[in-house]
Amino acid sequence: LLGAAGITIRTSSPGRAWWGNMRLETRGGVRVTSTPASNSPAYAAGLDIDDEVTSIDGVDVVAVATIDSVIGRHKPGDTISVTYIERSGDKKTTRVTLVEDPSRDLIAIESIGGTLTAAQRTFRQAWLGH
After folding, report:
1. pTM (2 decimals)?
2. Helices (H), the chain
3. Helix, strand, or coil here: 53?
4. Which run of H or E residues covers position 7?
5. 41, 51, 77, 124 - which has most CB atoms within 10 Å?
């Protein structure tokens, strides 16, 4: 369907390490405030809503930016340690194996140097109305 409209899919951030999409907030420490997706490395490592992340890869976590910075220094396949306090109050350390960020972008082929065929243009106009 997308090809018929002259749209392609590509990886948003090739080679970027990712541990999962979850909301993190700084409130009495950096807390997980949404459940990690079940297909994410953070979920596989045991992190859950209301856990407080205290260190990542040996770096004390003082803000969400700390986590982003540490993960940004790694590549997919790297394993990092994460120390956290569960909502029960127990302190735990787990290992998270980072994967490539699975985010994808939809790209109009003309924006990457391609040319729409007449059939693609007609299909796109009928589908999207422009």
Report:
1. 0.81
2. 41-44, 64-72, 118-128
3. strand
4. strand 7-11
5. 51
